[in-house]
Amino acid sequence: VWRLSNNGVLVAMIMIESPQGIANLQEIVQVPGIGVLFVGPTDMATYINAEGPNSLEVEEMVQQVLSVCIEANIACGYPIVASSLQDAEQQTAARLDQGFKVLAVMITSR
Asked: Rounded to 5 degrees, what are φ and ψ at 79?
């Protein structure tokens, strides 16, 4: 949960990281009080033995979550792992354009 104000307003952020989570999306979004569904693409990739979190199969699952969130008027979150500030800005703009509302942006350093 995430505190929105000093008055104690909280937001429940639910992780969707597996095919089971994808299969149960319609039921999950019916739970009262959910503020954000946050996608876990790395765990999704592991569950389906994909080449990585940026694989086409994982992106299809990510888009399923986003679509259901938009339909249910629930914010959708996504973790951005970028290789540079410019990459972070590009990925952030792209995900916001898609309809994501909550982004965790990280830049890897080498």
From this structure: -90, 125
